[in-house]
Amino acid sequence: MLALHDYRPSLNGWKARVLLGLLGIPYQTREVALFQGEAQGEDFLKLNPIGAVPVLQLEDGRSIAESSAILTYLADGTRFMPSDLYGRAKVAQWLSFEQYYIEPTIGSLRFWTLTGRLGLNAGRMVESRRESAERALAALERVLREGPFLVGQALTIADIAVYAYTHRAEDCGFRFKSHSALSAWLARTADAIGPDYPIVPYTPDAKFA
After folding, report:
1. pTM to 2 decimals?
2. Least CB-packed of 54, 65, 84, 96 within 10 Å?
3. Minimal CA–CA distance to 189: which of 163, 169, 168, 171?
């Protein structure tokens, strides 16, 4: 059976959980004590040398790290990955977009806000990430005026990846009032994913004190 090495508050891990659930693939969860240093231990570093979650461990013991790589592996040959070369390239485009422009901005700001670290990163760093996130949201708004989902007419892993941190952007002060197409996409994607994948709060050991 597959094993997902995960920290449940992680929205990168959430992406993998969503796709595994939508595909009906059984798996074991192996919770990683992220803030107690477990991910930097020798055993975990053999699975992912950078020491980050999630990691998907295959039945034969091989491992795949990075949420985009996990999504791509799981989606191959399913309805969540286009079969044509152009469609697959567009999925790769949006997975890259998410990792460059969404996760480092909204993801970081959300983590800092919810764990009491925002003040430690005050000043130009926070301002710069907020500006970059606003540009990313504006880009999504432009694209989503043209179609219901990011690639084609149905949900793909591109939507799952981008949705993960974007739909929690209000946790760190972003608002969607001026982004009607983006708001409609958020609602469509939520409906397509369903209610079975709740967002888990950060554990007490993640909080800055």
Report:
1. 0.96
2. 84
3. 163
